[in-house]
Write a structure and sequence with these properties.
single chain, 262 residues, mainly alpha
C-alpha cells in the first residue's frame, strides 16, 4: 500500500510540474473546446433555437464543452507515458521502490487535477454566454469533474501502455476522441436520435459524464435534455456511478497492461 501511495504522489506531482512548465499546453488545451463553442454556438443558436423550455442551444452545449475539455486532457495524459518510454525515464521509474499501480494512479490523479483546473477556467466564460453559475453549482461540479477525469485517464494510460511512439499515440487518440465527443450528447440529446445511434451513445462512458454536468447546470430543466436508459431518466449520482464503474475497469486494465508490457 505504501508503494502505491508513494508512486501515486510522485507521479502526480511530476505531472503537475510538467503542466506548469509547458504554457503552450495550457493554451492549446482550450483551442478545440472554444472553437466548438464559438462556431457551433454562434452558427446554430439562432437556427436551432430552444432545446427545452428556458434552454437555448448555447446553454445546452456549454456543459458538454466542459466535459470535452476534461476528456481531451484526461486521455492525453497517456502521452507522458510514451514520452517517458522514448527518452528512457520510464525505466528509472520502474526500478524505483514504487508499485506500478501507483504509477497508473499517479498519472490519473495528476491529469485529473489539471483537468479540474482547466474546467474551472472554462467557467469564466459562462457569464459571457448567458449561462448561470452559482457557488453551490461549482462545489458540486468539482467532484464530478474529478471522477470523470480520473476515469477517462485510465483510457489514455491503457492506450499508452501499448504504444512506442508519440506520433502513433496521438493518431490513435485522435481517432478515439472524435467519436467519443460526438456520441456523448454534447451537441444533441441522445434520446432524440435513431435507435442504433442511441445505442452507441449510451455505451459511451462520456455520455453519462456530459449528462451529469448538464443536470448541474440545467437543474429543473425538461427531461428532453437528459439521458434515459430503458425508459429510466438518469440522475447525477447514477451517471457518476456508471462513469466510476467504467473508470475502475479502465484503470485496472491499464495497470495490468502496463505491467505486462514493461
Amino acid at each position: 500500500m505504501s508503494d502505491i501511495l508513494l508512486g501515486t504522489w510522485v507521479i502526480a506531482y511530476r505531472e503537475l510540474l510538467r503542466f506548469v512548465q509547458e504554457r503552450s499546453r495550457l493554451l492549446s488545451s482550450f483551442a478545440m473546446p472554444l472553437l466548438f463553442l464559438v462556431i457551433f454556438g454562434a452558427g446554430f443558436n439562432r437556427t436551432i433555437g430552444v432545446m427545452a423550455p428556458g434552454v437555448d442551444f448555447v446553454q445546452f452545449i456549454y456543459p458538454g464543452i466542459i466535459a470535452m475539455t476534461v476528456l481531451m486532457n484526461s486521455v492525453m495524459s497517456g502521452l507522458s507515458v510514451v514520452w517517458d518510454r522514448e527518452f528512457g525515464f520510464l525505466k528509472e521509474i520502474l526500478v524505483a521502490p514504487m508499485g506500478r499501480t501507483g504509477i497508473v494512479l499517479g498519472k490519473a490523479v495528476g491529469s485529473a487535477t489539471v483537468a479540474v483546473m482547466q474546467g474551472g477556467v472554462m467557467l469564466l466564460f459562462a457569464p459571457l454566454l448567458g449561462v448561470k453559475v452559482t457557488p453551490l453549482m461549482v462545489i458540486q461540479l468539482v467532484p464530478v469533474l474529478i471522477i470523470i477525469s480520473v476515469s477517462l485517464s485510465g483510457l489514455g494510460v491503457l492506450v499508452a501502455s501499448r504504444m512506442r511512439s508519440q506520433q502513433g499515440f496521438q493518431l490513435i487518440v485522435q481517432l478515439m476522441i472524435m467519436p467519443l465527443i460526438f456520441l456523448s450528447g454534447v451537441f444533441f440529446p441522445v434520446n432524440n436520435v435513431p435507435g442504433w445511434l442511441a445505442t452507441f451513445s449510451k455505451a459511451n462512458p462520456l455520455t453519462y459524464g456530459v449528462d451529469a454536468i448538464r443536470q448541474l447546470f440545467l437543474e429543473g430543466s425538461s427531461d428532453m435534455t437528459r439521458v434515459t436508459v430503458f425508459s429510466h431518466t438518469m440522475t447525477v449520482l447514477e451517471d457518476i456511478a456508471i462513469v466510476a464503474c467504467f473508470g475502475t475497469v479502465l484503470l485496472l486494465l491499464a495497470a495490468w497492461s502496463f505491467g505486462k508490457q514493461e
